[in-house]
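REQUEST FORM: STRUCTURE PREDICTION
Request ID: SP-0412
Submitted by: Lab K.M.
Chain count: 1
Length (residues): 576
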Amino acid sequence: MADFDIHIKGGTVVDGTRAPRFRADVWIKDGKVAQIGGRAPGFAKKTINADGLFVVPGFVDLHTHYDAQIRWDPYCTISGWHGVTSIVLGNCGFGFAPCKPDFQQRSMLTMTRTEAIPYASMEVGMSWDWESIPQYLDSLDRAPKGVNCIQYMPTASLMIYVMGLEAAKTRPATEEERAEMRRLLAQGMDAGLCGFSLQRLGRHSGQADYDGSPMVTDTMVDEDILNLARVLCERDEGFIQITQATGHMKEDLAFLEKLAVAAQRPILHNAIAASRRDPDPHRKSLAWLERMRAQGLPIFGQGATTRSGFAFTLEHWNLYDVSAAWRDMLTGSKEERAAKMRNPEMRAAAKSEKAMYALDKNAVGIGGRLPRLLVQSVANKPELEKYVGKSLGQIATEEGKHAVDVMLDLSLATDLQAEFLQPEPQFNADFSAEIINNSMYTFPGVSDGGAHTKFFTGGAFTTDFLRWLVRDEQKITLEEAHYRLSALPAHAAGFRDRGVLREGAWADVVVYDMDGLGIEPDWIGEIAHDLPGGEWRRVQRAKGYRSIIVNGVETFAEGQCTDATPGKLLRHGRAE
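STATUS: Completed
RESULT:
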C-alpha cells in the first residue's frame, strides 16, 4: 500500500517564502505536503517527474468575477489553466447573494452589463437554491470545484436586499437599514464570509448597471461604508476590497485612509497601474501606500500588471461607459443600440469634445485611443473587406469622416458584428517591476477573471507575469515572483495554510517549465464556444505547466483536465 499520494521528483522548489530555490523531492499525502527533501519512507501512488522544472505554491487570484462561472466550470478557466488554485469571489460589491427570489433576473441582468457576463449562460448555468448568504455559502460548498474559493459580502447585493433597488441608488441608508446591514454582514461572517467588497466610481461610473445608471455602490455615502467596516473591526476578522475612482486623487485616498482606520483590517486597494512613459502615477501610489503602512494601516496594493488586449464589437462593448454620451448610446438591446447609432443627435454627442476627452483620458484601461483601433473583421462582408487591418483614424482620413462615424457606420453595416482590435502597445517592464519591487505590500493581479468574457482575457496574468518580468526581462527574481503570486495575497486575504510549500500546509502545487511557459494564442486569445446557453467567450490557453494540484489532487496534467474536483469553499479562509 502506498505511503503517499503523489511524489514530485527531482524538481527545483521555490517555496513562496522568498527563500532561495533548492532542489528537492516533494511528497503529498491526504491533501497536504507531507515531506520536502530527504528520502521518504515508502512510495507514492503517482510520481511526477519534475527534473528541470520548478515546483511552486499554487497561485492566488484575489480579483475575479467567477461568481456565475464557477457553477458550470469548476476550474474557473481561464485562470485554472494558468496555475491559479485559489480565488476570491464577490469582488467590487457585485454578486448574487443575498437576493430575494423576485430579484434574481435583475441581478443577472446587472452582471451582463457591469461585468459583461452572458445572460444566457447565467440563465442556463445557475440554479438558484438560496436567498440568504448562509444559504448561498451552503450552495457554493455543495458545488463541485476544481479551485479553492472564499467569498465576500457583495455590498451592492446587500444594500438592494435591505433597501430595495431604487432607494439604494438614490439615498443614504436609514439608521434602521444600517443596523440590518450590520446584522446581515455579521450573520454572513459567522457563516464563513471573508469580508465585504465595493466599487465606488461615482455617478459617471465606467462600469454601469444594466439600465446605464451607476451601480449601487458607486454613489453610496461614506457612512454606509464605514457602517460595515465597523463590523469587521468589532469582530477583528475579515478584509475589504475596494475599487475606487482616482479622479479626485487626494479625496479618494483620504477616504481609503479613513476606511482603514475604521476597519483596522486589511484593505485591498485596486489598482496600481504603470503607464508607458510617465512614472509619476504609480510612484505616487506606492509612496502613499508606504505612508499608510508607516501609520500602521494594513492596506495592500493590487498591481495591474496584466498585458491583455481588447477585441470587441459594439453589440457587447461596455467600457465606453466612462463617457455619458457613449453610455447612453450603448445601453439596451442590439436593436436599441443600432437605433441610437443612427440618431444624429446621439452621434454628435458621441463625437463631442467632452466625449472624446473622456475616452482619451481613460484610454489605457479601455483599449487605447479610438482612432488607433484596427478593424479586425467585418462579418465576412466582401464589400467591407478593404477596411480590415486599417485603423479607424486611417479610414477617417481617407474618406474625410470622423473616426467615430467610421466605427458606427461599420457596426451598422454588419449588424453590430464588426470587430475592433486594440493594437498591441509597448509596455514598460521597468515601471511594472517597480510596482512589485519598490513596495513590500503589492502583488500582481486584477485579472477580472470571468468578466468581460467576449473581449478580455486577463485570467492569463500569472503566466504572463512569470514569462515577461521574470524570464524575459529579468526585472523580478523568481523567489520574489512566487512570494507575490502566492504567499502575500494568501496572507492579505486570510487564506490559512496556503500560498507556501511547507510540510503540513495544504498541497496546492504547480509544476512548470519556465522555458516552455507561454500563452496561446497571445494578445487577444481566440473564440471558444464553450459556455452554457450556446454562448462564446475569448480564451487564452496555457503552455508549460506539467501539473496543477489542488488539495493534493491533480486537476491538470500536461495541460489536460483530470476531471477531479478537489477544490473547497474556505469558510473563514480555511478548510473545515
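NOTES: The longest strand covers residues 4-13.
Reviewed by: T.R.
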